[in-house]
Design goal:
Blueprint lengths: L1 H12 L11 E8 L2 E7 L8 H15 L14
Antiparallel strand pairs: 1-2
Length: 78
Amino acid sequence: MERAKGLRLDAMHGTEGVLKDPAPDVLVKDLAPSSVMMRARWWIRPPRGAGALDARDDASLRKQNPQGDTTASADSRS
């Protein structure tokens, strides 16, 4: 399991554009007799104009669902 986590981390660290801080990580989500489910997380710097895209997405969600029972969130780290 540690080798599988290490391979994923190596791949993320070796990928252009992946931020070093916060560092990529790999979490074990589920252990089963014949499998291990892992979640890999990494961060990138948002492209220029990302705020405008977020505003458009938010407006689009409100337009599609005027009752307001849809929620959306984003984890933005820069």
